[in-house]
Structure formats: C-alpha cells, structure tokens
Amino acid sequence: MHWPKIMHIVSNMKAFFSLATLLCLGAVLTGCVTVQDQTAPPPASKADVQFLSEEIRRLQARLEASDQEMGRLSAELYASRSRQPEAASATQVQALQGQIEDLQRQLVALDAARAKDRDKLYQDISQNVAKLMKNSAPARAASQTGYEHTVKTGESLSAIAVAYNVKVAAIVQANNLKSADQIYVGQKLFIPQ
C-alpha cells in the first residue's frame, strides 16, 4: 500500500510550509534596512505588517483545518482496513480499493489546495512588500557623509543638533522628518556633517 509514502509527502509538506511561513514572516517583520535608510517605517507600513500577520494566522488556521481533515481521512482508511475480514470476497476487495482510491484523490485535492494557498500567500506577501518598499522614505544620497545617532530617553532634536554642531533643519531634512517633534526613543537618525 502507498500509505507510508503519502504520510512522508504530507510530513514534508508540513515542514516546508512551516519553514516558508517563518521565513516570510521574518522577512516582513524584520524588514530590509540599509545603512543609508534607517528611519522608522511610516505608520501605514505597520498596518500592512499587521495585515500580513493576520493573513498568515488565517492561512495557518486553514492549514490546521486541512491537517484535521487529513487525520480524519487517515482514520477512515485505517477503519476500512480493520473492517476487512481475513478472507474477503472479490466484491469487498473492489469496494475497499474504490474507497482507498477515493481517499487518495481527496488527499491529492487537499495537497493541491495547500499548494494554491501557499502560492496565494507568497503572492500577497510579495505585493505587500512591494507596497511597503514603494511607500518607504527615499534613501539619502550615497555621497552624503555624517554620523548615526540613536535617540535616547529625554533627548530632543535640538539637543542632538547642539551635540553634533549641526542645525536642526539639517537633521530634519536628512531624515525626511515632518517636524522636529517627530523623533522617538530608539530611533536611528542620520546626522549630516
């Protein structure tokens, strides 16, 4: 019988989907940051990350439901095997083979549905990452030199400007800030020379 082979395929699919989900979630949550562009993401991108997280949770719930269905089908297959008497008639054997073929078709259909869900997840994530990249602030000119400063508790933009002997307006412009009050603790700012 092909049952061990089917279980092996299902096990490999679970491992692959779990790994792919973790990698995609990691890429989305950590983001891609370069030395030139280390400003905080715009608020819209946080909503997009939350949307992606919710979408991943929804797809994982569907995956769990598929696993439960697969478990039910496995139990049904085992039950049909255990009901088969030692000396089964040809008619009974044919009926059982028909049931097994039906179960195998259902497993193939379930596998196709999982592949479709995985492809949709990849497509959705790719589209949302592209949107996030498009909406992010433009990178500073590569030729601009300066320092990187991480905002600490109690610091203001004017205090940072005094510490580096630059104008507040230069820091605001270099970091694409809308106002001098727009900084937060832990934010990395580029301080031009």
Please state the overall shape, judged from the principal axes of the Cα atoms: rod-shaped
Query: How many strands?
Result: 2
How many DSSP H or I helices?
A: 5
Instruction: Please summarize the sheet with the most strands.
Output: 2 strands, antiparallel
Describe the secondary structure blueprint for this structure.
Blueprint: H1 3-30, H2 43-83, H3 90-135, E1 146-150, H4 157-164, H5 168-174, E2 188-192
Antiparallel strand pairs: 1-2
Describe this structure as you would to a colleague:
- The chain is mainly alpha-helical and 193 residues long.
- It folds into two domains: 133 residues; 47 residues, LysM domain (Membrane-bound Lytic Murein Transglycosylase D, Chain A, Roll).
- The chain is 67% helix and 5% strand.
- It contains five helices and two strands.
- A two-stranded antiparallel ribbon has the order 1-2.
- Helix 1 runs antiparallel to helix 2, helix 1 packs parallel to helix 3 and helix 2 packs antiparallel against helix 3.
- It is rod-shaped, with a radius of gyration of 28 Å.
